[in-house]
Amino acid sequence: MTTRSFVTIAIALTALVTSTEAAEPFAGRRSDISVTFLEFPQGLRNIGMGATGVSDINQPTTGYYNPATLAWADATWVTFGYQELFLDVTMTDTRMVYGNRWSDESSENAWRLGGVVGYTTMDLEAQVVRTVYLPEGTGETWNPHDYYLTSALAGAVERGNESLAAGVAAKYLSLDSGSGDSEAWLFDYGFVAAMRILINGSMLRPRLGFSATNLDTGLEIDSTEYDIVGQMRVGIGVDFATPPTTYASRDVALASGSFAADYTDRGDYDSFWSIGWEVSILEMVQARAGYQWYEDGPTNQGDRSNLWLGFGVGWVFGRWTVRADYAHMNPRPNYFDLDINQDMFGVTLGGRL
């Protein structure tokens, strides 16, 4: 393997490979590969809440954790997130979410439809091309660039205060391994159920979600075929809001918030638990916190826990919404025992048609 291939796969963590066939090299089954680029969480609100989001139905949702959550989009949103990771690696995530709700005037029934298109990138600063024969460099430079495109659709039916949604997503992945681009198609699906309870004007909304993500058709890197490790998530949560009050010509809850708890199953690849909280004042300022801990896996993440923090500010101006969000996390160590804080920020622009 050339040095530039090692930079992307090892240092940039574009693809961390752990073979399941190490003891049986001729078993006839493809090895598993953990593409960590796909597993860096998206959505600044969710990141600030410990990377929870399987049952999140608050606006705006990205559909990253569960495509079914997109069914609750009721406007057009454009979101942009930027993450500074480590070793000069950066990520961007740009998404456009659209949603609508149709109600049955003769009953309390309604239908929802939402979708998203997204473009997610990971880049590393220019690297000197080296080989085992020219360890000082060949005189060339190389700019690693990986990306994936996302398209998802979700629908929901509401019967009174009860809602049930389902969604699917397709992703096209392109990894620059140094010796050429590797491509793959991946698919997600998920479900969300929620119930709205009104108590003396206050709202309580428990919810439950399930998703399976990164179900792939195979990935070829340097003439070797791999199966991408997928994730199965299950999550519960509850939203609450005080009775609405009028502030700046808007009817808003004086105080509102959310709690979420998710479990992400990656088989033998470091499955983990996450919990998160958000508290909002006048639907304008939000404070968030999350906690995450890992089970034992091949990278020995047992007894490892991370604290996540975040905040947001935004307001609705007529039909338009403007938001800014920030999140901070201390990432789990990896094969190189890196333990570097990450800072992320994002903006959201939304409009109701």
Structure notes:
The structure is a single chain. The chain has 353 residues and is mainly beta. The protein has a single domain, classed as Lipocalin, CATH 2.40.128. 5% of the residues lie in helices and 58% in strands. It has three helices and 23 strands. It has helices at residues 3-11, 36-39, 44-48, and strands at residues 16-17, 31-34, 76-84, 89-103, 109-124, 127-128, 141-142, 145-159, 162-176, 181-195, 197-199, 202-216, 219-221, 224-228, 231-241, 244-247, 250-253, 255-265, 272-281, 285-294, 305-317, 320-329, 342-351. The strands form four sheets. The protein has a 14-stranded antiparallel β-barrel with strand order 3-4-5-8-9-10-12-15-18-19-20-21-22-23. It has a four-stranded mixed sheet with strand order 1-2-14-13, with no helix packed on it. Strand 4 (89-103) and strand 5 form a beta hairpin. The longest helix has 9 residues, at 3-11. The protein is globular. The N and C termini lie far apart (53 Å). The model is unreliable at 1-29 (pLDDT under 50).
